[in-house]
Design goal:
single chain; alpha+beta; 6-stranded antiparallel beta sheet; 5-stranded antiparallel beta sheet; 5 helices; 13 strands; about 20% helix; globular; binds zinc ion
Amino acid sequence: MNAAMTGRMAIKARQIPPGSAFAAEVAAGELVQIIDVRGQQVADFIAFNSQDQAEFLSTGVTRSANSAIMLQQGMKLFSNRRNPMFELIEDTVGRHDILYACCDARRYADDFGLEDHANCRGALTEALRGYGISHDQIPDPINWFMNVGMKQRGELELREPLSERNDFVTLLALMDTLVAVSACPQDQTATNGFNPTDILVRVYRTPPEPESSDQDQIDVMDNPDEIALDAVEA
Ligand SMILES: [Zn+2]
């Protein structure tokens, strides 16, 4: 599919329908790929240090450390402790949001009069239930593929995503993490083009070190003392 995937094997994969989420542990050196299967679909993404859940991916620190309100390929994503957690190594869209909170039950009830609407905060909480992370501990997400326009005096406008079928981002984990991704079920605004669809998440293992059956022989040849010893014994 692309250069970063060469020699790598997907160890986890999950297609997520709108309104649900997937959580997975991703070790340092592994890759997380988030794919917009049909296009114009937002994926809310949160992450924790898997060794210490008090450390989490912070959109605030990520904005500060990059001096930017939008992400670009090559940028690092930072924790609330200013440690780099991920690097955005591939991005086929170039337009994502790091300003908006994830949608929750109150958003649909207060703004659209819809009770019990599926929502990202609920889905992320459900996916993380087994890891001891509660509803109120869900940090503000990175909203992959979400297209937020900014007007002259800072007013924000929800626009249809620029992502098309099979567009994706790939993140390199820089620490051992627990990640969760939801497919946003927002169907009342342009956020998902008024038509929420699936998100696909894949985790790729670090490629194994190349094996060499001649390793011992090479070591001997590279070591003059060993060669000398062999010569004496012969
Ligand atoms: Zn949402």
